[in-house]
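User: I'm writing a tutorial on reading structure tokens. Could you give me a worked example: one chain, its sequence, then its tokens, then a sentence or two explaining what the tokens reveal?
Assistant: Sure. Here is the example chain.
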Amino acid sequence: MKCLYALLAGSATVTLAAVPAMAQEVRSQVEVRAGAGYQSNPFFEGQGAGNAGPTTSVEVDPRILITDEDSRISINGNARLDYFLDDGRTNDSISIRTDAQQRMSERLELNGAASFLTSRNALFDAIFDDPAALTDDQFLPDPIIIDGTVAGQQIRTTIFQITGGGNYQLSPVSSLNGEITSNWTEFDGGFGNSFASTGGTVGYARVISPRTTLSVQGDLSFSRFDGIENEDEGVLGLGGDAVLAGASVAAQIQLSQTGRLNVQAGFTTVRTDFDVLEPQTSTFASGNVSFCERVLGGSLCLNGSRQVQNTGAGGLAPISTVGIGWSSELSPYDSVSLSARYSVAEQPEVGIGGLFPERGTTRLFGINPSYRRRISDDLRVFLEANYADISGALLDSNEVYGLRVGIAKMFGEVR
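And here are its predicted structure tokens:
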């Protein structure tokens, strides 16, 4: 926990340094959840794989929001510990994300973000994440792209990512935007192929009607894979370099006062140069569709995506994902939510030492319904369920399921 608070403090200090001193509003909240339930073992390989039994869990979610006339800074964190009572094993994760927007002038706005994640089960953290929902400013959430190629391998995934960019208003109806992102992903456990990547995007957007905006975008990124080798099995993952270049066109459509639709389509060209292999070049179709609307007393979001991205199995793979997220306030005291995701990771362009058969894929499906009952302004009880099924080239079909009941206490401003 000390690590989490240190990260929060460090992120706040770095981000605030760029914000001019002026009247600021600071809101903060910490939610603490404790629960108990019945959960199957999320690790598929060895040490009681597939066993199910009683579990306990503790989770802490700190949130800080700092705003003034020209800037907005948000800091969101999560720390969770699950304890399996039967065999004494634990599953832990810590994450933090800082986002900042700064208006420099009437035409120029800068933005930045930094995030950190370390988890022994990052895959299921993503599958069972909170459902996508419309934000107060009606922005659509980004589709979640899930890498299932390292599922159940009992490895710790650590990810650090920083992003910086800006938007420049050329005229009342047109703008230029750009962004640069660096990512470091490390797998500790002798299986996943750690990598680092840096890339950028440049785009142009134009409002063609009060409800429709069209845009074009170009992408370029560079990746480096470390490679994996151990004494018993030799080379499991090749080291090497990859370059991704792509272009796309997109439309953002305001369907109604609360309904929005985003559509993007394009292509990605990948060139890989891995150890002992000839350089390869391939081109893939890519794109995404997102739709959000306020219905049934809450927020409903649907999304689908196909993107080429780095995977823990040692190469670049097209990953297709569809998802649904819904949350609703049934009454002043009761709320429900549901998230479900299905993802397919195709055979990487460069596999891990031949372990991927021809046209091998990894498929996963996850669903996570939940119910909350407000006891008072700062106290709630909750009931959560989860189910996931994962199969693919590296593992047979495996199921994970669980049920948890608990209590949540809010400190600070309740929102």
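What the tokens reveal: The helical segments are 2-16, 122-127. The first strand starts at residue 25 and ends at 40.
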